Amino acid sequence: GGTSVYKERLCNVLVRFVPVTFDPAARGALEAVSNNSGFPRGALAKARWIKLPERRRAGQRVAHAVFGFSNPSAANSAMCEGMWVDGSRVYGHKMLTEPIRCLRCQEVGHIAAACTMDREACARCGEEHCTSTCNVSDDERACANCKSAQRDFKGHGVADRACPFFSNKLQRLRERNPEAVHPYFLVPEDPSSWVTHEETDTAYTP
């Protein structure tokens, strides 16, 4: 017969503004974070940067990282009370699947490598040019997706977390994923972890 391999399911927390001095691969790095943050021994299983270090801009001091917890209570603590990484107190939120957006045409539902559109759209102003060359001010931003959907498209770009078009897509995705209803990881013996996004204003809303 075949051999099955058990893979531990981790509670992944997206933590923002982590000092780039932190090295997830360094010996004792995770243990130091756990000790300084008051997590149980072994609660923090792994960590990785969202973006490869070699892709950072010159002089960058903080970056976003994913921390994988084997203990859901510790993961919830990291989100509610923060965690200490290289001398800085940082916070995160539950990492969930979000709608994918093409960085070429900006439409939701596919990635740039699979884009079949014959035009490129700017993520800041919605016009047909590369986002990196756009020089409009924040007040002049316009969302290509909201414009196509005949929504209020002025004052924000497609990457804005408050974009009505994105919010609608995110809500639909959450409705298909029961875990996305809760801002925290469920702990059977802790009723405070059972709340939904609608039931608490202390939850971090991604």
UniProtKB/TrEMBL annotation:
InterPro entries for the chain: Znf_CCHC_sf
One of the protein's GO biological processes: mRNA processing
SUPFAM superfamilies for the chain: Retrovirus zinc finger-like domains
Record's keyword terms, sorted: mRNA processing
One term of GO molecular function: nucleic acid binding
Protein name: CCHC-type domain-containing protein
Organism: Mycena albidolilacea
